[in-house]
Amino acid sequence: MIKFLDLGLQPLANSYLKKKNLNLKEKKFNLEIGFNQKNYLVSIVNTVPKEKMFNNEYPYKSSESKTMQKSFKDLTVKIKKKFNPNFIIEIGSNDGVFLKNFNRKSIIGVEPCKNLARLTQKINYKTYSKYWSLKLAKKITTKTKADLIYSANTLSHIKNLDEIFRAINYALSKNGVLILEDPSLLKCIKNVVYDQFYCEHIYVFSTIALKKILEKFDLEIFDIHNTKTHGGSNRYFIKKKINDIYKIKGSVKKEIKKELKFGLHKISTYKKFARKVKKSKEKLLNIFQILKRKKMKVIGYGATAKSCTVLNYCKIGNTFIDFFYDTTSYKINKYLPGSKILIKKYKKLNKDKIDIAFLGAWNFKEEIFKKEKNFIKNGGKFIIHVPYPKII
Ligand code: TYD
């Protein structure tokens, strides 16, 4: 693996701090990103043990956003119409935002974070609070294989991909369909989305890399949909090679062509990206320094894991941002890791009290701008750092 980007010492992105722990030393790791020239995988170099990240206090809930709710709902309608599955497994079922659209008898969730698994167990959806593995696949599918396996924004969090796909291969029926959805590396590199990298996001996948991994397991992509979630994602439709029901669509060739044209198979592309990231840091810091000089009231909006990477890499702390607003109850009255900025319970932005908000949840820009239309109408502004830092 060739390292191409160093995002410095970083704390665990979802380890929000309680006030009483503010003076304790935080665990940090060096966030470096590398490119594997053999299989085209882009990944973080130093990983953190999964038990430290996915435990019974995992704060992220997919249902927090209307955008995500709608995206999952629309997909379930399509799945029912196109594949009409009898038995579905969801790997990384989170708070059930996808699962709940199906009949209880037809779907099983797998969610290692106990606080989240409990939410779907409570409403009688069968949910295994375990990490996805071959052992678990054998337990769930000894009698009947799944005709659909779905996993969104989860595989990028799992180090041992071989184990994952071995288990998927075991659990999936001969003519079954695997749907994977994850942020697109092409979008990430094109739009200088360096905050897609943090301790939990071990990989950001390209189609060319995923194709290589799947080949080892006799799996192949037969369709790709580009989606808008998380700043641009890909939804991959995958089948076993022996399944000849589905023909490989032109979308697969098209996506691969786009990736190769952009150079996702070449290290020079990533080195260029790293140079852009450095410039982005200087520019963002400069914006904050100017705002400070002008004594503007600056807050943060959406205390995301992504913000953790940006704030710690750019060394933006509570001298630049007074506090963050967030809608997630777990995060309220805690502090962002590393930067130690307080997170307050969300209130609609008021131009009389706030001049400008750093958009930590930039991936929900449209949803947020709709919500804050009065703030914007009254001259309120936002700072966004992708594709380059600016005030809007
Ligand atoms: P998200 O960007 O999905 O993930 P990550 O933490 O993986 O980078 O997190 C969105 C966060 O933004 C979440 O904490 C909820 C918050 N949020 C708001 O506070 N207000 C909003 O209107 C939206 C859409 C999100």
- Number of E-state strands: 17
The distinct ligands, each listed once, are: thymidine-5'-diphosphate
Strand order of the largest sheet: 6-5-4-7-8-11-10
Termini separation (Å)? 38 Å
Major sheet details: 7 strands, mixed
Order of helices and strands: EEEHHEEHEHEHEHEHEEHHEHEEEHHEE
Strand fraction equals 15-25%
Radius of gyration, rounded?
Answer: 21 Å
Structural class: alpha/beta
User: Outline, from the CA principal axes?
Assistant: globular
Low-confidence stretches: none
Q: Count of DSSP helices?
A: 12
What's the average pLDDT?
A: 96
Helix content bin: 25-40%
Brief synopsis:
This protein has twelve helices and 17 strands. It is α/β, with parallel strands linked by helices and 392 residues long. It is globular, with a radius of gyration of 21 Å.
Helix-strand blueprint:
Blueprint: E1 2-11, E2 28-35, E3 42-44, H1 50-53, H2 66-82, E4 88-91, E5 107-110, H3 114-122, E6 127-128, H4 134-140, E7 146-152, H5 161-171, E8 172-183, H6 185-190, E9 203-204, H7 207-215, E10 219-227, E11 233-240, H8 250-262, H9 267-293, E12 298-301, H10 305-314, E13 324-326, E14 343-345, E15 356-359, H11 365-371, H12 373-377, E16 381-384, E17 390-391
Parallel strand pairs: 4-5, 4-7, 5-6, 7-8, 12-13, 12-15, 13-14, 15-16
Antiparallel strand pairs: 1-2, 2-3, 3-9, 8-11, 10-11, 16-17
The chain binds thymidine-5'-diphosphate.
Residues 60, 64-65, 302-306, 326-328, 346, 361, 363-364, 367-368, 371 line the site of thymidine-5'-diphosphate.
